[in-house]
Here is the input.
Amino acid sequence: VVGFLTFGGSANSLILNSYAAKDLLAILGRLGCGLSITFSYPLVFNGFRTGTFALFKHSPSQIQNDLFALATVTFTTCIAMVMNDLGFMVAFAGALLGSSIIYVFPAMMHIAASNNTGDKVGPAYYASYGIAGLGMMLGVIGALVSYLKSFTSVLD
Here is the structure.
């Protein structure tokens, strides 16, 4: 918020890039962000890898773990090398993940809990399907809008 108040509409999508290259506090902020990403990536990646294999009910060998790590790090590095606008990634991920966390996941948890207890009747059970569908639709619309805004002139 302070960065936007400082730079207004000319603020860069990565706000630290809006500050001068020689600004000491901005340098410290960039260093802090770099250290945070460097040391948190293994923690986040381990959870992602474990969750992905658990989703497919697969117990990987060490070689499979290593190959998955290599493929994932290569893929994310290639995307990072191609992307020059962090704002698009933030908007795209925010649209998809935000609607999933707010609408889709709670509705799916309610449906799963109702299936486990055998309580499949009533308006709340069927409303959960509607809420999950609405969340998916809003996520797709948000992702589409962020794409159109970043890569086309349709919404200008």
